Amino acid sequence: MSIIGQGLSREDISRALGLVRYLEEQPESLNFSVPVDYILLQLHDYPYIIKQPMDLSTVKKKIKTSQYANFEDMLCDLILIWDNCRTYNMVESPIVQQADAMERCMLRFCNQHGISLEAAMRKPRIEEHPDCVSFKDKEALSERLKITPPEKLEEIVHIIERECPYAILKITEERSQLRIDAIDKKVFQRINRMLDNEERDSSLPIKKIKNEA
């Protein structure tokens, strides 16, 4: 058992390193093994969205340099890796599926080795940055854009290209993909207001002008 507030015991260090090594051996671990190089990957919004980056190599280093007060804190950092991935990426993306698989591996190892995750799971999850948009709102906007008239959609895309260019992913010269998850809060709110106005205008009754005899 971990001694709360007195650092990791030798037994805890051995178990913690065993858990991290087990996770590193998983085929899905590649994207979680080292810090996200958001500059190389051109993820310009990453540091604005993810305020507490974490990865397996950092957890291992913190274990070896006695930076954890207790075992629970180490488990919280592992959970943070998967939470960060889900925060930044779309829920249906392959990398989120990999994060889910890695979390299942963590749970399996802990169950097999008598490690309780209850306290770590009860701790508050990562706080949503005030400049970010919730997943629920992103999903709602995605559904609204699917039924937006082409001319209004084109206007919205132009606004995003001008004010939030990293949300437009160029696939080919002719094709681009809109990353809802990368739209900043200010632009997001402006788009929603535009759609609200569009829906309100389209729902207004058309007044009939009676011909006077």
Radius of gyration of CA atoms, rounded to a whole number: 23 Å
What about the largest sheet? Answer: 2 strands, antiparallel
Strand content: under 5%
Which outline best applies? elongated
Class from secondary-structure proportions: mainly alpha
- Counting structural domains, the number is 2
The CATH architecture assignment of the largest domain turns out to be: Up-down Bundle
Compressed to H and E, one letter per element, the order equals HHHHHHHHEEH
Q: Approximately how much helix is present in the residues?
A: 40-55%
GO biological process, one term: regulation of DNA-templated transcription
Keywords: Bromodomain
Domain Bromo: 24-96
Protein name: Bromo domain-containing protein
